[in-house]
Specification:
The chain is mostly helical and 793 residues long. The chain folds into 4 domains: 19-61, no CATH class; 175-241 and 266-394, no CATH class; 407-570, Tetracycline Repressor, domain 2, CATH 1.10.357; 606-760 and 769-791, Tetracycline Repressor, domain 2 (Orthogonal Bundle). It has 28 helices and 4 strands. The chain has helices at 2-28, 33-41, 45-151, 155-169, 176-245, 271-283, 286-304, 313-337, 344-365, 372-390, 397-405, 407-428, 439-445, 469-488, 496-522, 527-542, 544-554, 559-568, 572-600, 602-605, 620-638, 641-664, 673-696, 713-723, 733-739, 745-754, 764-770, 773-792, and strands at 435-436, 462-463, 671-672, 755-756. The strands form 2 sheets. It has a two-stranded antiparallel sheet. The chain has a two-stranded parallel sheet with strand order 3-4. Helix 5 (176-245) crosses helix 10 and helix 15 packs parallel to helix 19 (572-600). The relative contact order is 0.03. Residues 51-219 form the Exocyst complex component EXOC6/Sec15 N-terminal domain.
Amino acid sequence: MHTKTRKGNSSKNGDEIADVILAASIQNGDDLGPIVRHAFEIDKPEVLLHQLNYVVKTKQVEIEELCKLHYEEFINAVDELRGVLVDTEELKSTLSSENICLQQVSLSLLVKLDDLLDSYSIKKNITGTLKILKICVQVLKLCSKCNMHILNAQFQPTLKILDLIEKTYLQNIPMKAIRMAIEKNIPVIKSYIEMKVSAEFNDWLVDIRSTAKEIGRLALRQAAKAQQRDDEIRTRQREAEEQSQHGIGDYIYTLDIDLIDEDSVLAFDLTPVYRAYNIHNCLGIQDRFRSYYYDNRLSQLNLDMEISLKQSFLESHQPFFAQIAGHFVIEDRIMRTARGLLSSTQVEMMWDATVAKITSILEDRFFQMDTVSNILLVKDNIILLVTTLRQFAFRVSPLINIVDNMKDRYHELVLGEYTKQLTNVLINDTYQQMVITKYSDYKLYVSAFHLQLEDMPPVFPYIAQFSSSVPEVCRIVHSFIADSIRYLSYIRHVNLYDDVKMYLDRFLVDGLNEALLMTIHSRKLGVSQAMQCTVNISFLEHVCDLFFRHAGHHCGIPSQLIERTSVEAGLNAKNVLECLQSVAFGELLSLVNSKADEFLALTDNINWTANEVPQNENDYIQEVVIYLDSLFSAAQQILPMDALYKVGGSVLQHISDSIVLGFLSDSVKRFTFNCVIGIDNDLKILESFADRKFENTGLSDLKKECSLRDCLIESRQLINLLMSNKADDFMNPVIRKRDYGILEYKKVAMICDKFKDSPDTLFGSLSKNRNNAKQNVRKKSMDVLKRRLKDLN
């Protein structure tokens, strides 16, 4: 029972839930197809119908409640609508009556309105006519102005007016005849303007080519003035530095107003170019004008660079350089001012072609020159061209390279020219000491080249230790330095000082040294002249450092830097001149000795087999002493003390050697003791002379290890040995080292073989009987020495 009740309740609850779900689906507008299909699939359509009925009942209840709610409001709305209909009928009748009244009142106004509209139409026609007339009048006025500008050759405003007409008025001109006439004449006017400006530009091309040379000359002249001002400024700076170093005082720098060039700006008329370019821009054909301008200017440049082979390059190079400079000054001005007419690339291409042509011409003509002055003139003009065009940022390094490549050739010619001058000076020199009587001459020949040995003021007449060739050589060297710097000082040459020093060194070695060598070897100089030549070379060696400083000073090197570097990096020529001085001194000694040989002639002047004991010296020795006295007198005036000592010692050494060689001569078969006594007398005269000169000339003050007498030591030791009673002591090492250290075994053996103590004559036995015991002892000692020397050999 309870089970059935629960089932009944469950079934009832399930039906209610299903009804609610179905109602919700219908309310939401969901598709009921699945629910219907499900009811038929489970075969329970009745349940579905029951549910639908339940939903219908539910809705009917709701509808009834809704109708009840809105019925009263509907009745009220219907009542209000009926009231509105009544008011509408009343309003309609009112409007109808008002319309009738309005039509009666407005009839006269409508007539007036029609008149007003006619008036407005007439006004509109008149306004349109005035507007057309105004446009025509404006266009005609512009055409009139255009004609006036054309008559006055004012083409720029003419083109502006034409452009204004074309862009603003032409399409708006209502009158066809006027519009067609204007359209027809505009191209004609433009063609006319183009023709006129082109003719004007062509005239300018002709004029500017002839004017370019003068423009170039002016530009080169300005560059030369600027370069001269720079040189003057550098000179003043060097003078200021020198004065500052010497403590002379403050040096005031001033601005020289006279040196300022008022015409520093190159003035030439480019108006036709600007005008033509501007007109072509306005015509829209600027590209064609650019091409036309560049082609014509390039053709002119090619014509300007043609130089006839028959024409002298020395005469033609200046106008040639002026033409080139003027051409590119103009092109640079046009490139910077006429914007767009000429590009920097075009100018560079034009310049590169010009540089190649100039380089070819210079390599063909400039390198063939063989005159120093001509080379300098062309070089200076090349540098002026370089300086001028460098201001306009043109690439000038190829031209500088041409000048640089020519410097060796130039210096070869300069070296040859100045070497000839040196040779002439050395050939014409008398090699006598200069005698200067005036202070002006002293400054000119001595102090100008720092040849004074002391800082004391000179006493006139001033006798210089050198001959006239020394200041002349210094002047020639200074001229060489000046010419070298003049060539090398281009564009502030970086290695100017090094190059000048190199060429100066080459000139001193290859020029001065060779000229001096030729003078030494080829010219027949006397003894005093040879002495003076040696002294001259010592002075030239001394001034080598001064040449070095002089070159550095004129190259703008500070004096302090020159002083520091001169010690470390002096001229190689100084070493060469030191060697040359040795050569000259050797030639002097050879000349002195050969002159002494003329007076010696021992084999002819000495009686080698004298029978009697001589009481005095041989006759020749007086002539030798007179020669030596004159030699020392001349050397004392010319040579320094060291050189005097060397000359005196050398000639005495040579006389000593000649005495020894006289004993060794093949023409001397034998000699006697009496001959030895005579030579001993001669040697005493020479030794006395040597001692006297050593003291009187001041050579003793030199503190030399050997005196002049010591130069005769070999002959003295030989004579002492031949006159000794103990000649065999020569073989004693101790005695030999002490008394005969200079003598050689071989020479002594040969001389002793020729020594005969007594003459071999018919009365030799009688003479022998008269010899004393001393002579016998000497003979025995000599015989022992001979025998021992033979055994030694």
